[in-house]
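Troubleshooting: if your tokenizer reports a length mismatch, compare your output against this known-good record of 152 residues.
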Amino acid sequence: MSDHLARLLRYDMWANQETLQTLRQGAAPARSLRWMGHIIGAEYLWLARLNQSPAPMPVWPDLSLQDCELRLRELSRRMLDDVAGAAGPLSRAVSYTNSKGEAWTNTVEEILTHVVIHSAYHRGQIASDLRTAGQEPAYTDYIHAVRQGLVE
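Known-good structure output:
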């Protein structure tokens, strides 16, 4: 795996953890918790697709904050260890069927890039939802993480 893509995955794992910690600071809005669960479910789905194995949970799982914490811890390890060791070359083609039953093929690089962008999109929804609820969202900008040495 490229150093850049590995760094983006480390950023994604860090940002997901920061977002989860923010959800723990007050009463987590139901939509925010649902989006956090979706981030986790989707990352597990893509990991399963990369490994050509069945997904261990639905893409929209119903997770508690504690479930999210346990799953994120495992995802962090698997994304950084399993993917780096087993995903193979970034150009390797991965064939899968999406939730609509459509067959697709994408490269490992395309999939891992999608994982990072997809999670950032939903973290943005969570941030907006938290602000609407009068709470302060996590500061998860990539450049902030780099400047602070939070991802290497």
